[in-house]
């Protein structure tokens, strides 16, 4: 039986393929034959070669102005060809693209998936819902499946046998848009790993009293990103882009460290699917301890310096 073609929408940052894309490529190999689709006017051939190491049989490049989700979905519809599965990283923009593509092609769509597998010729996905209180398994019954996969849910691993990664330029017919991009003003990206993609997230809440020095230091030591609760961002202690929660960023790191965060439902909904959850809080009855794998009752001002010192000591001893 011929393996199904799995089209993977490539995410670029400063011209380079992002780590979550390689995670999607790794997942794609378990579903069929991966084909990378790049929506960019300028694409470095070296990046295409790297996609080949993760199994890409083809790299299809679509040039043109596809900044609007409506135009991106139209371009993707033509570029994926007869692919049985379309995978993409689950970002705010990509979820809109996925929905538009599903309507245009009659495909079944699942977003924020934590995994996917092919069973009896159909894609079945897993995801957490309702503030991560339920694990759901969904079977997509249509001929084509569109899946937006969360970062950090698949370990990115190069293929045992690299793909050919033959590059081709796909010419698409883009429809007239009902809206237009008037101007684009890039927001300076925070230093370090983007919050949604970080394998380690260290978050601070009201218990920081507005001082994020120790939280930032712990994140630096662990090679992670800095997160925050809604209370902290509402107080203006840290910018909104750091907020973890239902109306902020949903994260699924391997390690989540909550410092001085009580664990309101809003916050838990954005981090409860993390691999390992560690909480530091002065209140032994804080709700965050109900979902934590490890809990430390104490002031973060006392606990974090000791933890940082021990981690650095262990590293020096290696």
Characteristic key phrases:
single chain; 318 residues; alpha/beta; Rossmann fold; 2 domains; 7-stranded parallel sheet; 5-stranded parallel sheet; 8 helices
The major beta sheet can be summarized as: 7 strands, parallel
CATH fold name of the largest domain, please? Rossmann fold
Radius of gyration: 21 Å
**CATH-defined architecture of the largest domain:** 3-Layer(aba) Sandwich
Would you state the CATH class of the largest domain?
Alpha Beta
**Fraction of residues in H or I helices:** 25-40%
Structural class by helix and strand composition:
alpha/beta
Number of helices: 8
Model regions low in confidence, pLDDT < 50 over at least 5 residues: none
Strand residue content: 25-35%
Q: Let me know the average pLDDT.
A: 92
User: Biggest sheet: strands side by side, in what order?
Assistant: 7-11-6-1-4-5-12
Strand elements, count: 17
Distance between the termini: 50 Å
* Shape summary: elongated
Question: Explain this structure to me?
Answer:
- The chain is of the alpha/beta class and 318 residues long.
- The protein has 2 domains: 166 residues, HUPs (Rossmann fold); 123 residues, Rossmann fold (3-Layer(aba) Sandwich).
- 26% of the residues lie in helices and 27% in strands.
- The chain has 8 helices and 17 strands.
- A 7-stranded parallel β-sheet has the order 7-11-6-1-4-5-12, with helices on both faces.
- A hairpin with a 4-residue loop joins strand 9 and strand 10.
- It is elongated and about 60 Å long.
- The chain starts with a strand and ends with a helix.
- 45% of the residues are buried.
- The model has no long low-confidence stretch (mean pLDDT 92).
């Amino acid at each position: 039986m011929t393996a199904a073609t799995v089209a993977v929408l490539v995410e670029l940052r400063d011209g380079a393929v992002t780590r979550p894309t390689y995670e999607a490529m790794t997942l794609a190999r378990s579903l069929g034959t991966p084909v990378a689709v790049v929506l960019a006017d300028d694409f470095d051939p070296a990046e295409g070669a790297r996609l080949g190491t993760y199994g890409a049989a083809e790299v299809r490049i679509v040039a043109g102005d596809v900044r609007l989700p409506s135009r991106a979905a139209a371009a993707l519809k033509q570029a994926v060809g007869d692919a049985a599965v379309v995978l993409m990283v689950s970002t705010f923009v990509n979820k809109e693209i996925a929905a538009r593509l599903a309507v245009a092609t009659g495909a079944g769509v699942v977003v924020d998936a934590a995994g996917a597998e092919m069973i009896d010729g159909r894609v079945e996905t897993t995801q957490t819902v309702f503030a991560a209180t339920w694990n759901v398994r969904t079977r997509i019954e249509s001929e084509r499946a569109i899946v937006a996969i969360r970062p950090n849910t698949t370990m990115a691993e190069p293929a045992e046998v690299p793909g050919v990664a033959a590059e081709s330029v796909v010419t698409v017919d883009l429809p007239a848009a009902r809206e237009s991009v008037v101007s684009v003003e890039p927001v300076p990206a925070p230093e370090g790993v983007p919050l949604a993609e970080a394998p380690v997230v260290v978050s601070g809440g009201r218990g920081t009293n507005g001082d994020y020095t120790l939280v930032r230091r712990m994140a630096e030591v662990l090679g992670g990103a800095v997160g925050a609760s809604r209370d902290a961002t509402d107080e203006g202690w840290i910018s909104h882009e750091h907020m973890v929660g239902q109306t902020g960023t949903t994260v699924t790191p391997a390690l989540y460290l909550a410092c001085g965060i009580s664990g309101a439902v809003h916050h838990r909904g954005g981090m409860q699917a993390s691999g390992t959850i560690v909480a530091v809080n002065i209140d032994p009855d804080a709700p965050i301890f109900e979902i934590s794998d490890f809990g430390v009752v104490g002031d973060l001002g006392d606990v974090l310096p000791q933890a940082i010192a021990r981690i650095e000591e262990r590293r020096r001893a290696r």
